[in-house]
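Hi R.,

Quick one: here's the Chaperone DnaJ C-terminal domain-containing protein sequence you asked about.
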Amino acid sequence: MQCPPIRGYGYNGRHGFQSRRGHCFRHRYMDAFFASIPPRTPSKRSPLPRPSLVNSIHNGASLRSVDHRNGFPENLPRNPSSKWKSDPTRYSKLSGMVKPPTIERNLECTLEELCYGCMKKVMITRDVLTLYGQIIQEDEILSVKVNPGWKKGTKVTFEGMGNESPGAYAADVTFVIAEKRHSLFRRVGDDLELTVEIPLVKALTGCSFPIPLLGGGTMNLEIDVIIGPGYQRVIKGQGMANKKEPGSRGNLNVSFLVNFPKDLTNEQRTAAVSVLGDSG
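And here's the predicted structure, written out as C-alpha cells:
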C-alpha cells in the first residue's frame, strides 16, 4: 500500500504514521508514541517556581497598594502572615514558621497628651512579601490611642505589622511611650511639680500672682505668709490623670525660688538692718 507523500510524518489510517520516503510505521497505542517524546526542560532564564515558596503563599491574600520603587505593579497580594495573631510562638513545629524579634520604637507624647489622652498616627515603612516571592517596601499608618494617665514606658503592640520574610511570621511592632520634656512642669507619678521665681520683697511681705495650669489657663494664688526655704503650696486636682481612677487627677505642687538682690547700697543695708533687726 502506497502512502501519500506528506511533509514530515503523516498518518495513513490503519498503517499508522509514515515518513516522506513511504516507509510506514505503526504504534499500537498513541500514548506510547507521545510518551517516547522527552519532556521539555525549563529555561534557565525562566525557572519553575519552588514548591516551598508557592505553598507558603495564601491564594486568598488581600490586595494592597505598594511602592513602585522596585518596579513592581500595584495590588500585589500580601503574605497572610502579616495578619494579627494571638500569642504567636517563636517556632511552630506544625507549620515550621519562626517568629522574628519584636521591633520597638519610641513614641514621644507631651504631658498634655498623657493627661487628657489623644490619638496619634504614626507612619512606618516595612518589608512586605508578595505572592511572587519578592520583597517590596510599603508605607503604612498605624493609629495609637493614648489613654489618659499613661506613663513613660507603657507599651502598645501591633501584632504582625512589622517586616515580612519567607518562611517566617511577620514581626510585631511595639511603641514605647516616652515623655517629652515640658518647659514648665515636671511629672512625679500622678503629680506635677512647678517652680516659681519670686523676688525677696514679695517673699517677705506676701503677694498674689497667677499660676499656669497644664493644658492652658491660670489660677490666682494668694500668699500671705513669709516664704522661706522649702516652702511649698499644693493645688489639689491639677496634676496628671489617674488611669486607675478615671476622672481623678493628682496634685500640682508649687515650689518657690526666692531671688535675692545681687547688690545693696549702704542706705539699703542700713534700712534692712533697721527693719529686720535681730529677727533671725
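The helical segments are 30-35, 51-55, 111-116, 200-205, 266-276.

Cheers,
M.
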